[in-house]
Amino acid sequence: QKSFFAQLGFDDLSQSLLLTLSLLVLLSFYLWVRVTHRTKDKKVSEAQKAYYSFQLKMQKKGLEKESWEGPRDFMLRCQDHWPEKKQEIDQFSKAYLDAEFALDPRSIDFKSLLKFI
């Protein structure tokens, strides 16, 4: 490290200052990597957008998703709460789970599925 900084014109840096500079460089690089990767992970799929719309519809009807509930359990509870919409909720549920968790997701028209709920 001393020879590296000597080439840059910093001949008489103490060992503690070199260590501090090295740690600052490493910390800066780590933070840069974290920030750049975080923005890439924020992409929301069409299935997730549709599920969020579904949750809003259910919330307007008086049924909110519990924090401990997964999507499947919440949709089953919605079916129990509105048996007249059981088939429509089941279709949406299957489409969402396939799109979000299947190995080969296919294109699904979530807007038309949500229209009937």
Descriptive notes:
68% of the residues lie in helices and 0% in strands. The chain is mainly α. The longest helix is centred in the first third of the chain and has 26 residues, at 15-40.
In short:
The chain is mainly alpha-helical. The protein has helices at residues 2-7, 15-40, 46-60, 71-81, 86-101, 110-115. Helix 4 (71-81) runs antiparallel to helix 5 (86-101).
Which consecutive residue ranges, at least 5 long each, have pLDDT under 50? none
Number of strands: 0
Query: What proportion of the residues is helical, as a percent range?
Result: 55-70%
Element-level helix/strand string: HHHHHH
Which descriptor suits the 3D outline? rod-shaped
Termini separation: 66 Å
Mean pLDDT: 83
Spatial extent as radius of gyration: 26 Å
What about the largest sheet?
none
User: How much strand?
Assistant: under 5%
Would you tell me the structural class of the helices and strands? mainly alpha
SS summary, helix count: 6
List the helices and strands and how they pair.
Layout: H1 2-7, H2 15-40, H3 46-60, H4 71-81, H5 86-101, H6 110-115
Features:
rod-shaped; 117 residues; mainly alpha
